[in-house]
Amino acid sequence: MKYSVIGTRPIRHDGADKVTGRAIYGADFQMAGLLRGFILRSPHSHARIKSIDTSKAAALPGVHAVITAKDFPEVDGKKMVDLGEGLMPLAYARGNVLASDKVLYRGHAVAAVAAVNEHIAEDAARLIEVEYEVLPCVLTAPEAMLPGAPLLHEDLTTKELGKDSGTVSNIADHIQFSIGDISAGFAQADVVVEREFNTATVHQGYIEPHNATVLWNNDGRISIWCSTQGSFVVRDATAGILDIPVSQIKVTPMEIGGGFGGKIPVYLEPVAALLSKKSGRPVKILMPRQAVFEATGPTPGSYMKVKIGAKQDGTITAAQAYLAFEAGAYPGAMVVPGAMTAFAAYNLTNVLIDGYDVVVNKPSTAAYRAPGAPNSAFATESVIDELALKLNLDPIDFRLKNAAKEGTRRADGPRYPRIGCIEVLEAMKNSDHYKSPLVGPNRGRGVAIGFWFNIGFPSSCTLNVTADGSVNLIEGSTDIGGSRTSIAMQAAEVLGLRAEDIHPSIVDTDSIGFTAVTGGSRTTFATGWAAYEAAQDVVRQMKERAAKLWAVAPDTVTAEQGIYKSNGHTIGFKELAARISETGGPIVGRAAVDPRGAGGSFAGSIVDVEIDPETGKTTILRFTCVQDAGRAIHPAYVEGQMQGGSVQGIGWALNEEYFMNADGRMMNSSFLDYRMPTALDVPMIETIIVEVPNPGHPFGVRGVGEANIIPPQAAIANAITHAIGMRMTRLPMNPPAIMEAIWCQKSLSPLS
Q: For residue 149, which of 220, 42, 46 has the smallest C-alpha distance?
């Protein structure tokens, strides 16, 4: 279908403010009487809190409030609170905000101070005396799963395949997905490959640190200004933690300097609220960079085993995965989506996936762009590559033979509607990159694919038609990657206007209907759908106004590309808007949706590397990302998402990790030591957009923010394997790891 706005590349609506520095981020917010907060954090990764003495801090001149976990109201700790991408017991949510009886990771918040400036607040926090009983720590899933391992939670019992086992352990949950009979499947295989894999904890690496400013007013209303991926998540989670009605909280989302899933949970807002209540003044807390690394949610580290069998002709007969993911201090290791997507790119008849959610003495994990999927895909796609090699098949042809298609059932249950897995693989195979030769020593080429299912969830939108024919769009989805414009473009397409005629605003929680988190690749899909429906509401009302103007029946009026016609009468949208005051007054289009048609997206990576055999340094020579966008609303934004996810995948593959000592201390908690890629480390990321429209969306939209980070790690591992002759099974594949593999290669057979 031909569109006039969708598929074009207008300038983003927020671009001028951001490039000129006028955009207001959370740290920029100021108000009269503002105090500054500082949080005291644990120096231990696991310890019992025996006592906290805040008297010296409270006596310091300039200090207005000091709080601990005892300042929280008493509530039922088993009550669940929605943290944006899943429910968590209130006791855990509160415990992560301020520790009560135990600290469970280094950096765990223990107490907080509000003072006239940040320096006094920090000095006061250091005067708080905490007596700890240091306990043994566990830092990896296999270690935490051992019998007799130190327990993080004495009341945590393992949920075994959906039922409470009653067994107290560090294993919060064991889930399982299965299809067919894997024993019979492996018996049919001519070749079977089984490997073990490990991935380190990594951080989202957003530039802007966490922040929150809160005013607990005299009338009991709480106003929050913060950088968040979900203002309603902040409202609801804070209300739950403080045991107050959601109607008493208004959250105003500020501009956000990156999130990637890491700015969904609340860390500061309930603390700042209590400090404000106690001091009677607004309180701002800015999180230092070290605290961002040590106390906010990174990815789960993981231990995995994957086994896949195939016939000589390349037909996969069985696939099995064991996934043990680190949840950090509290359950929620993202192992469920990791298991859902592990073999999701393939049409398989015999599958068994076991996933374990394991608590360890690290910060509680949070989403990071397709959470869990990059871990499992690293293992799965590495084994797929090895199978193709053993079967002497082209790695893309092998994947095409077994690719998921419409009607394929995933191991977790759903059958696919129309999907673009095959089209992505064909685009990879036909790309200039894949067709070009790769010559030279110590060089290798790798490919991999990945899937992310996307989500729907509720969204609301309001459109106000102005007398000059422009439209003010009001919505509640935090804009991280240009969603203001992609949402506005969908409204413009319906109304027959230019994208520039739509003026989008992201407003507070009192000013728009409930809108779920900006995450799960849902925003352009779901809030865009709300804009589509609100625009349809505007068109309906505009038809009625035209009918009134011409004295004709409303059902005789047609609208196409902003032109309204009936019985020889014609009027444009802007001309009609100029006359709304004489035809009945303001026109406001409204919509609230909870769409169920999320289509999922497939992405693939092709990467060429060169390895320095003397140092183990990996140079990315060329990188191509291919992704099914369904319908690329704004192709430049789609390309930006693809490039961004690919670069993050490169960092995850080659350098990034939480480097922990034996006591659970992160030794590289700064941007200087936490090695993220810079422009000098990556080539220009080539992009190929595939468009297989999603039948579950009016414009065919598929979310594109996440699938692109899934295949890079495996593709790079496969490329390095082909360059040095040794299979890489651990992330990151940094120079020491590669040198170790090269030294092993000298004493072992290739690819052993």
A: 46
